[in-house]
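REQUEST ID: PR-0412
SUBMITTED BY: lab tech R.K.
PRIORITY: routine
TASK: structure prediction, single protein chain
INPUT:
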Amino acid sequence: MSRYRRFWVPGGTYFFTINLQERRSDLLVRHIDALREAVRRTRQERPFRIDGWVVLPDHMHCVITLPEGDADFSNRIKAIKIRFVRAIPATERRRRSRIARGERGIWQRRFWEHAIRSDLDFSRHLDYVHFNPVKHGHVSRVRDWPYSTFHRAVAADLYPVDWADVRIDEMPVGERD
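STATUS: complete
OUTPUT:
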């Protein structure tokens, strides 16, 4: 069995990438209400602050901060994944290994996390989260993607509404006006 090294920081801020098993799926945006409910219920049970979040058709990125003294991000991600899976119909293809374990074939088993280490690190990851729909070609302007905390950040005067309205090859990721 593989051994994964996780950097546990009680009360820490983390960036995550969470992927669907089927990378060409649109499952997350097609069932966005089920995903939102899974996140909402998990936050009620295991509180955390959402600093930034974007949902794309086949994966999502988020930056969250855990409560002081709490480093258990893994069970929060697990709870969100489980709640989402239970809320949607079982129509996905499953590999034999998944069938043998009684698992659905929705999520990749692992996720990627990064502990945020500085204000600059935080800013760069938040920019990455919000720019991701443009990077993947879903929209040409950040503000046009509906499944993002970018709109909340604009309302809080953290970003101008026209942030990153440049060609993708001109965008210096991590910088803002």
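NOTES: The first helix runs from residue 27 to 30.
REVIEWED BY: pending
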